[in-house]
Specification:
This protein has 151 residues and is mostly helical. It has one domain: Up-down Bundle (Four Helix Bundle (Hemerythrin (Met), subunit A)). It has five helices and no strands. The longest helix has 18 residues. The chain is globular, with a radius of gyration of 14 Å.
Length: 151
C-alpha cells in the first residue's frame, strides 16, 4: 500500500503536484486548484501538530472507521466534509501566490514524511494514530485531492 514513508510514493505525489496549475479545473467539489493546495498544506500542518482544530462533532473515532479509511483498497468518497479550520470556504488558509503556496506544500510534505515526529495528538475523525497510519493518511489525502483535479 502506498505511503509517504516510501520515497517512490512521496516522489509520485510531488510530481503530480507540479502538474497542477492555477487554472486546473476540478472534477468535483467546490475548491479551486489554488484552494486545494492550501487545503493540503493545512492538512499537513494539522498532522504535524502545527495547528489544532475544534472537535468536529463527529462520534468518537472507531478503530473500524480508521481501518476502513486507511487500509481498505477503495477510493475515498467525494464530498466528505472536513473540519472548519481546513475548509477553504470557511476557515482554511487563504491562497496568496500559487507558486509560493505550492512550494510551501512541497516543503510541508517533505518535512512531514522524512522526519516524522512522535505523534501524540489525535486526528479529529480517526483518533490516535501510529506514524505508519499518519504516513498512509498523508498519501491518501494528497492522492484524493490530486485526483479531484485530474492529476
Amino acid at each position: 500500500m502506498k505511503t509517504l514513508r516510501h520515497p517512490r510514493d512521496r516522489e509520485e505525489i510531488l510530481s503530480r503536484l507540479q502538474r497542477v496549475g492555477p487554472g486546473t479545473c476540478r472534477r468535483w467539489g467546490k475548491m479551486s486548484a489554488h484552494q486545494m493546495i492550501c487545503h493540503l498544506s493545512d492538512g499537513f500542518r494539522l498532522y504535524m501538530g502545527l495547528m489544532s482544530v475544534a472537535a468536529p462533532g463527529f462520534p468518537y473515532p472507531s478503530k473500524l472507521l480508521k481501518w476502513g479509511c486507511l487500509w481498505v483498497p477503495l477510493r475515498w468518497p467525494k464530498g466528505f466534509h472536513t473540519v472548519r479550520e481546513l475548509d477553504q470556504q470557511i476557515g482554511g488558509t487563504r491562497p496568496v501566490d500559487f507558486d509560493r503556496d505550492v512550494a510551501e506544500l512541497s516543503g510541508l510534505l517533505n518535512r512531514f514524511s522524512r522526519n516524522p515526529p512522535e505523534f501524540h495528538w489525535p486526528h479529529p475523525y480517526l483518533g490516535r494514530m501510529s506514524v505508519a497510519e499518519w504516513m498512509r493518511l498523508g498519501y491518501l489525502h494528497s492522492d484524493h485531492h490530486l485526483r479531484q483535479f485530474g492529476v
